[in-house]
Design brief:
With about 210 residues, this protein is of the alpha/beta class. It has two domains: about 130 residues, HAD superfamily/HAD-like (Rossmann fold, 3-Layer(aba) Sandwich), CATH 3.40.50.1000; about 70 residues, Putative phosphatase, domain 2 (DNA polymerase, domain 1, Orthogonal Bundle). The protein contains ten helices and five strands, in the order βααααααβαβαβαβα. α7 links the parallel β2 and β3. The N and C termini lie close together (about 10 Å). The mean pLDDT is about 90.
Length: about 210
């Protein structure tokens, strides 16, 4: 296992378990257009994809014709609902809160998310975690989103590194990290991040002795 210069984290589902809340906010907004979004559909088709791609998929679920533009106009409302619900107490696991300060002393850290910056940076700031990340690559920062390699290559370029570990929870994110040429650690949920990443790095350290 190579020595890493940086660790690049996906946001939703990795640093915090936010997907159920994203789903609830989308479900509330979509109901105004008669779209009944269930969790299984959201889980299978909306997690880990770019926001515009997700909105196009959701528009196609409408029982009556709904254009992408009509639904995209509601995106700011969904973002506002989400930030309002989590801003006071972002659901970052305690293990993650303890892990990041230690990691930042040995690695450059970045967040690489398909979500908009307004759904990422305010929560990191509210949780007191923003200082540990040298950069944030959000959905609006790239033209080709996950599973394309551009998001992770952009983060590496900003950090000035060539050896990075990507931490992801979704298929598109894993594909993006691998396409960028980096090792990828896939975790099951945000609550498992600290344990899984610590174990992974420790095993790598031992193997390098």
């Amino acid at each position: 296992m190579q020595a890493y210069e940086a660790i690049l984290f996906d946001f939703d589902g990795v640093l915090l378990d936010s997907e159920p809340l994203h789903f609830a906010c989308w479900r509330q907004v979509l109901a105004t257009l008669g779209i009944d979004l269930d969790w299984e559909c959201y889980r299978d088709h909306c997690i880990g994809v770019a926001d515009r791609e997700m909105v196009a998929f959701m528009a196609a679920l409408a029982p009556m014709p709904v254009t992408f533009e009509q639904l995209w106009e509601l995106y700011p409302l969904k973002s506002r609902l989400y930030v309002e619900r989590v801003a006071d107490n972002p659901p970052f696991p305690e293990g993650t809160r303890r892990l990041l300060p230690a990691l930042s002393r040995s690695y450059k850290l970045a967040v690489v998310s398909s979500s908009g910056r307004k759904e990422v940076e305010p929560l990191l700031e509210a949780g007191g975690l923003r200082p540990y990340f040298a950069t944030i690559v959000a959905g609006e920062d790239v033209e080709r989103h996950k599973p394309a390699p551009e998001p992770y290559l952009t983060a590496a370029r900003r950090l000035g590194v060539s050896r990075a570990l990507v931490v992801e929870d979704s298929e598109p994110g894993v594909a993006s990290g691998l396409a960028a040429g980096f090792d990828v650690l896939r975790i099951e949920c945000a609550d498992r991040l600290s344990e899984a990443l610590t174990d992974y790095l420790n095993r790598g350290s031992q193997a390098g002795r």
